[in-house]
Design a protein that fits this description.
The complex is a heterodimer of chains A (about 220) and B (about 240). Chain A contains nine helices and no strands. With about 220 residues, chain A is mostly helical. In chain A, helix 2 packs antiparallel against helix 3 and helix 6 (about 120-130) packs antiparallel against helix 7. The mean pLDDT of chain A is about 90. With about 240 residues, chain B is of the alpha/beta class. Chain B is globular and about 55 Å long. Classes of the chains: A mainly alpha (about 220), B alpha/beta (about 240). Chains A and B meet through helix 6 and helix 7 of A and helix 2, strand 6, helix 3 and helix 5 of B.
Chain lengths: ~220, ~240
Amino acid sequence: MELIETFFNSEVLIRAFPMLMKGLWITIKLGTVSIVAGLILGLLLSLVRLYAPSSVQFLARVYIDIFRSLPLLVLLIIVYYAFPFIGIRLSPFWSAMLALTLVSAAYTAEIFRAGIQAIPNGQFEASQALGLSYRHMMLDVILPQAVKIVIPPLTNNSINVVKDTALASVVAMPDLLKQATQAQALSANPSPLIGAAIIYILFLWPLVAAVSRMERRFGAGES
Amino acid sequence: MTGFVSIKNLEKHYGDFKALKGIDLDVAEGEVVCVVGPSGSGKSTLIRCINCLEKFERSSEIIVDETPVIPGKSLAKIRAEVGMVFQSFNLFPHLSVRRNVMLAPMRVRGASKVDAEAHADTLLKRVGIFEQADKYPKHLSGGQQQRVAIARALAMEPRVMLFDEPTSALDPEMVGEVLDVMKNLADTGVTMIVVTHEMGFARQVADRVIFMDGGEIIESGTPDDIFSNAKEVRTQNFLSAVLNH
């Protein structure tokens, strides 16, 4: 009984619920903005990485490698605590968004690159032979096919971004985790933390399941 | 006289390997030229140079309809005028058959959707695939896919059609249906350059047959010249190898 009192205290949970919802909303906002920005930047990076002049290609590769090896928490702390020294002062939300986006873009770029490279060369040649411009070749022929290949790994990456938003609590962002820790402090009871964990799971489980479904379906020789 | 397609001293090197060693070839408007020869003789490379899918040496010159084939702006014009059919069809798998045919006229020629659709349906009827217009390529047989690919190339109303071994990837029972479409096409007066192993087709349809080996044109002439009276030993050997089995 003590266990339930401690971790699943309904009184505390009900009191903390509005705070957790506020936190969830911020987590969703931060996750969505970072995912979308990361997708756009990542797609551009992948195109540069594949098709730009080789010196620019090299820069894209350096970017991708650096941001894949840098721990997100380190980057976040640099953005929030170090950038002010060079006059860049970002709110917790935008610091977290910037850090999440920069890292997500690096992963997304690699996912897109793999997706584009999986498209057979004949598709490029057929497009060129028909006289399609580079833009139309990519928009009408290559990317629609690549998207199908990259949706499962991109969804995986998006799940990671949403989970990583929890790191933003270290720069005082009132996200779901931060609200939960505050509620825990106020009520001297860890139930809000368990509540937050349950909310994360309820929210992300469907996405995880969707990825498995897609991987099974695409894996089963759809092409 | 220079042809509608005029190729002068065409060379293509892969490092030290010379895939094409100075090809000269003029193709007149409406002419059907079949290019035959052993694998690795450079025949596919030759036609892939005509629409610049393969880059060639600077000293070489290819002119299509008075426009030189060089990378850059004019290439789009050339590619719009030169249709190509590939060995492996290369249909767009994410688009329906009709959409495959409509895409380039809409994107390159700026055709309206209604016009592109009407034109696509006409062409699909012509190659006998109209009933499958709403299906996706993967639901079609190889022969049907290749006929769609021909319709797709024709949708741009090309002045020249290039065929790169169009029947080599097909099951034997489907070769005929594709060759029939190509024969009909030849009858309509489209300029055609066909790389093929189908000697029967070459003999029957070609105005001129070119025999290539080792990156060079060894011999060229009417189908009769080549198939019945080949002068060069290499041509004779090749033909006896492919015809007597």
